[in-house]
Amino acid sequence: MLLDSIAPLSDTTVGVAMPLSIVFTDPVKASARAEIERHIHLETSVPVRGAWHWFGDRRVDFRPRGFWPAHTHVSMVADFAHVPDGYGRYGTHSYTRDYTIGDDVRTRVDVVHHTTTVSRDGHVLRVMPSNAGSPEFPSWDGTMAVVSKAAEVRMTSCSVQIACDPNDPNYYDLTLPWDVRITNSGTFLHYSTGDPSPGSGNGSHGCIHLSYDNAKWFYELSKQGDPVTITGSPRGKAEGDNGYADYDVPWTQWLAGSGRGAFTTSAA
């Protein structure tokens, strides 16, 4: 039993909505999941009550019921040696992570009023004009944590299954700056050359458009795990495993997908 990935990385500082996310190389049987969860030991500088939740049979995430307390240090030891996965495979390794929850930076995108408001530790830092997805391609609603960011990203309509024919009016192939990704399916907050002065109309293919200066400021501020909450979009919420949209899953549903159930982390 091996792991494909663990997020976040050690020695990083992440946002208050960042789950501890473990992806196994091979499927894990439902009957083996509670035992696997019990072999993942969590210590936090501030005890938190949370639970693991399985997305399918290979990914398991831990989060508190609410957001993490800011400035919490998290230590994980996953002692999987000799632990079965239910399909005849056994763990051979232990894995560790040590990281910190940083400042409580939250972003709220109001689709109806074309504004994006950013706060830190409860204090508003900036209110920015923004545009969201068009009626044909509405943005996701709900809360999604920042997955990653890049100073420049090539965005193509074909990569997100919108249009692959260059003659299609929805076709695009652009390299754009100051990109903060919030879903694996291709949602970003970024600057768009086709929408340089947002704030009056929603016409994107699902991304949130900011002005160049605001997009650069937001890019520099953002870190993995910062929550971005979009309201007023008709599309509905992103699935919890579409990036780190874990807080789109109601707590009762979250617990239903846990082998062990809720527990309080050990004090570090």
TrEMBL record:
Pathway terms, separated by semicolons: Cell wall biogenesis; peptidoglycan biosynthesis
Organism the protein comes from: Nocardioides acrostichi
GO cellular component, one term: extracellular region
Sorted UniProt keywords: Acyltransferase, Cell shape, Cell wall biogenesis/degradation, Peptidoglycan synthesis, Transferase
Descriptive protein name: L,D-transpeptidase
Tree of life domain: Bacteria
UniProt xrefs under Pfam families: Big_10, YkuD
InterPro entries: Big_10 (IPR041280), LD-transpeptidase (IPR050979), LD_TPept_cat_dom (IPR005490), Transpep_catalytic_dom (IPR038063)
SUPFAM superfamilies reported for this sequence: L,D-transpeptidase catalytic domain-like
Start and end residues of each L,D-TPase catalytic domain: 105-231
Gene Ontology MF term list: acyltransferase activity; peptidoglycan L,D-transpeptidase activity
Keyword hit for Protein biosynthesis: no
GO biological process: cell wall organization; peptidoglycan-protein cross-linking; regulation of cell shape
Active-site positions on this chain: 190 (proton donor/acceptor), 207 (nucleophile)
